[in-house]
């Protein structure tokens, strides 16, 4: 039996990117008592803060929930690791640190779906107000917010030559991906400050930790929310073998991400009625969209060997060079230890039929077989490319009624003809860029999938062999209009049919944004907190 503990105005389940923002905003008023629950531990490990630490964090159970997908037909039967951050700050503590909003058309599409208040003109002011851009305030960027944005602090000649090659292939060089149209090539802006990772915990949670009205619990597992008379009354969670109940007089917010939030909903009796009944769970709200509509950016990772130019591979395996990397970082906070996994990006159309760029390249001056494994011992770069707006839809569901039960993750990659066609076209685009004249002096050689892969059929098989998640799952508790049967939330992020319960994280997206998804999640959280505080005033 759960022990009765405290009563709060707000309980936030999940201290990832969204949860850190929510905890900050909801506790800013000292009259609000806020409880923040996090399944991982404190972010007191050195590799959460040195940018290159993602190499050690991904695939490490100290930092990663170590989820896996089911075998994927589109990936030739392979099961993928599905990394999610396991600490304060969530995936923002282990991700690529890339600051990317997507395209104006993404948000205008949300508005066209009937989601008023979610168009580009609505969300741009939110992006700006949370931002602290290194170049200061202008039409597109903000200054003085909590979300620090800087330029990379390391340069690689190979990446400059790749940008030259992309220009030769018709991809213009642009200064900024975050103005609403990201077509072209540029260096990625990053969430760092003076050479250190700037996670959501550092930006939003740490400044709020001294507030007496904010309580933070780590190392817990959220069992369920309790609902009486159609309204949430408490959150039941476990810590160190003890079951606790946090009562709530205001609202509960699920911000456990696209994996965690739908599972908590299902354990609470909110989801597809037949599915829940099959697990012996009483149905509180029959919402068939819970756990459905999963979208993710599948990255296909062609690798090219090069000669006569440095890459991180060769520098890493040279002991002297590696030692100098440490010195450069210790003294100046510069060099390869400040690297995001990708420094240069390019956005292009896979074919003229698309109105805006639908492919994103992440060019990396390194290569490896998989994140969490060592770098290759030869000089190489990776031309990772993903379909920004996949039409494939997957799902994430419970496998049992306990928080400890592993989720059933089925992204359903490459399950549509359009996605398969775009995958083939993306590999052709990689070759179009790599074999331009600016890279000729370095004699690029396709290591994967290899020059022998020539036909569309062979390329599709190669895409299935090389494809993996780029860590952008969204959509599993999507917002929508009243006539959308699969909508879990209304446009104000309230769970349909249950009072006092919202979901605010990447799972609310009805369709995935055209780029990296962490900063859009930050925006959603800030906008969602604003909605909550507005609604509280009207009660």
From TrEMBL:
<protein>
    <submittedName>
        <fullName>Choline dehydrogenase</fullName>
    </submittedName>
</protein>
<keyword id="KW-0285">Flavoprotein</keyword>
<dbReference type="GO" id="GO:0016614">
    <property type="term" value="F:oxidoreductase activity, acting on CH-OH group of donors"/>
</dbReference>
<dbReference type="InterPro" id="IPR012132">
    <property type="entry name" value="GMC_OxRdtase"/>
</dbReference>
<dbReference type="InterPro" id="IPR007867">
    <property type="entry name" value="GMC_OxRtase_C"/>
</dbReference>
<keyword id="KW-0274">FAD</keyword>
<feature type="binding site">
    <location>
        <position position="222"/>
    </location>
    <ligand>
        <name>FAD</name>
    </ligand>
</feature>
<feature type="domain" description="Glucose-methanol-choline oxidoreductase N-terminal">
    <location>
        <begin position="257"/>
        <end position="271"/>
    </location>
</feature>
<dbReference type="InterPro" id="IPR036188">
    <property type="entry name" value="FAD/NAD-bd_sf"/>
</dbReference>
<dbReference type="Pfam" id="PF05199">
    <property type="entry name" value="GMC_oxred_C"/>
</dbReference>
<dbReference type="GO" id="GO:0050660">
    <property type="term" value="F:flavin adenine dinucleotide binding"/>
</dbReference>
<dbReference type="InterPro" id="IPR000172">
    <property type="entry name" value="GMC_OxRdtase_N"/>
</dbReference>
<dbReference type="Pfam" id="PF00732">
    <property type="entry name" value="GMC_oxred_N"/>
</dbReference>
<comment type="similarity">
    <text>Belongs to the GMC oxidoreductase family.</text>
</comment>
<feature type="domain" description="Glucose-methanol-choline oxidoreductase N-terminal">
    <location>
        <begin position="85"/>
        <end position="108"/>
    </location>
</feature>
């Amino acid at each position: 039996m759960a022990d009765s503990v405290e009563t709060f105005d707000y309980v936030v389940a999940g201290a990832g990117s969204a949860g850190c923002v929510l905890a900050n905003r909801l506790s800013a008023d000292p009259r609000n008592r806020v409880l923040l629950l996090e399944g991982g531990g404190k972010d007191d490990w050195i590799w959460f803060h040195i940018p290159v630490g993602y190499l050690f964090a991904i695939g490490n159970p100290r930092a990663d929930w170590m989820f896996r997908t089911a075998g994927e037909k589109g990936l030739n039967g392979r099961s993928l690791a599905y990394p999610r951050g396991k600490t304060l700050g969530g995936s923002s503590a282990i991700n690529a640190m890339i600051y990317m909003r997507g395209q104006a058309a993404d948000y205008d599409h949300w508005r066209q779906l009937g989601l008023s208040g979610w168009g580009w003109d609505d969300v741009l002011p939110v992006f700006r107000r949370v931002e602290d851009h290194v170049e200061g305030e202008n039409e597109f960027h903000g200054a003085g917010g909590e979300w620090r944005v800087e330029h990379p602090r390391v340069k690689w000649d190979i990446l400059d030559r790749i940008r030259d090659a992309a220009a030769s292939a018709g991809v213009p060089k642009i200064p900024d991906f975050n103005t609403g149209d990201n077509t072209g090539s540029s260096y990625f802006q990053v969430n760092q400050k003076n050479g250190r990772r700037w996670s959501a915990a550092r930006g939003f949670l740490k400044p709020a930790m001294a507030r007496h009205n904010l309580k933070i619990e780590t190392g817990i597992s959220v069992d369920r929310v309790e609902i009486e008379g159609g309204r949430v009354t408490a959150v039941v969670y476990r810590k160190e073998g003890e079951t606790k109940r946090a009562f709530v007089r205001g609202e509960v917010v699920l911000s456990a991400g696209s994996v965690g939030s739908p599972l908590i909903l299902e354990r609470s009796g909110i989801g597809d009625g037949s599915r829940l009944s099959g697990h012996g769970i009483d149905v509180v709200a029959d919402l068939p969209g819970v756990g459905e509509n999963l979208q993710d950016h599948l990255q296909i990772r062609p690798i090219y060997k090069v000669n006569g130019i440095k890459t991180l591979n060769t520098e890493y395996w040279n002991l002297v060079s590696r030692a100098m990397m440490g010195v450069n970082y210790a003294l100046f906070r510069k060099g390869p230890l400040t690297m995001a996994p990708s420094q240069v990006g390019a956005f292009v159309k896979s074919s003229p039929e698309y109105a805006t760029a639908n492919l994103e390249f992440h060019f990396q001056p390194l290569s490896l077989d998989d994140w969490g494994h060592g770098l290759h011992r030869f000089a190489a770069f990776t031309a990772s490319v993903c379909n920004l707006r996949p039409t494939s839809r997957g799902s994430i569901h419970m496998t049992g009624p306990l928080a400890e039960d592993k989720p059933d993750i089925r992204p359903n990659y490459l399950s549509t003809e359009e996605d398969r066609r775009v995958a083939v076209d993306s590999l052709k685009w990689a070759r179009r860029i790599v074999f331009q004249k600016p890279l000729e002096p370095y004699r690029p050689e396709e290591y994967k999938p290899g020059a022998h892969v020539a036909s569309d059929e062979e390329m599709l098989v190669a895409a299935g062999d090389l494809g993996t998640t780029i860590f952008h799952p969204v959509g599993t508790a999507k917002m929508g209009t009243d006539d959308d049967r699969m909508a879990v939330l209304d446009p104000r992020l309230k769970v349909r049919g249950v009072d006092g319960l919202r979901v605010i994280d990447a799972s609310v997206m009805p369709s995935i944004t055209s780029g990296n998804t962490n900063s859009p999640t930050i925006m959603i959280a800030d906008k969602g907190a604003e909605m909550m505080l507005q609604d509280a005033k009207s009660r």
